[in-house]
Each structure stands twice: as structure tokens, then as C-alpha cells.
Task: structure prediction
Amino acid sequence: MKGTLILADAAQGDPNGKVHALGAGWSVTGSPTPPMALILLIDCPWDETNTKHQVIIDLVDSDGRPVSFETGPLGDPRPAIHIEAHIEAGRPPGLPHGAPVRQQMAIGLGPMPLSPGQFYEYRLSIGGKVMDSWLATFFVREAPPAFPA
Result:
């Protein structure tokens, strides 16, 4: 398996297996963050098609802790972003042995009050496995100084 996460201003998947995106590839934003999209691309090896795979995406801070804005009824922090899904890449008829199959997903997210001056990352897990190359890291900049009137 190979996973890729891309940050974009907006994105939408289509039934033909394409993702249409605006403002893709950024790594610096302000706070509160504007609405954004996560583009997920998963290359499934030929021999792992027609099998369900669990996909998890979490937003974590620079220390690897889940980002939380609220607590549950017992005072436990609730993750701001925790996405769980199952994918199953079907093997198209006539696909040559060994050819990977790409699955795509576009996920829209609303604004978030992240702390300026900090790094954050969306961490992708596929079947319980996490790779550094599957992370989408970004920095939240300080607000620019206001100009005097």
C-alpha cells in the first residue's frame, strides 16, 4: 500500500476516479484556518485488491497528540479530526497482473482555531501502518501585523 495526503483549499472526487482540486499543495495557513480539503490517494497493490482495508486520518500537533477543542462528558479530550473509513479497491477486468489500483477520496473540512506558530499534521494510517511519507504537515503562521489607519 502507498498513501498520499494532499492539502487543498477545496476538492471533489468524481465517479471516474479523479479528484478535482483548487489550491492544492499548500503547507502554511492562518488561524482560524479557512475551510480546507484533504485529498487522499491510495495505491493498492494488485494482490491486495478486492480486500477491505481500514483507513484512519487524525489531526495531531507537533508532539503527536491528537488536536482537541472540546472534552467529552467524562472530561476526556475529543479529537478535532478523526476520520475512519474502509476502502476496497476493485480489480478492473483486463487489468494486467501486478498493476496497482488507485483509490481516491476528497474530504472537506471546516475552519479550525489552531494555535499560531505551531506545526500540525494529518496522519494517515492504512491497516494500522503509518509512514512518514503519508503525512501532510503544515504550519499555522502568526497573524500579519495590522496596518495603521
Remarks:
- Residues 82 and 144 are 30 Å apart (CA to CA).
- The two ends are 55 Å apart (CA to CA).
- The chain has a mean pLDDT of 91.
- The domain at 2-140 is CATH 2.60.40 (Immunoglobulin-like).
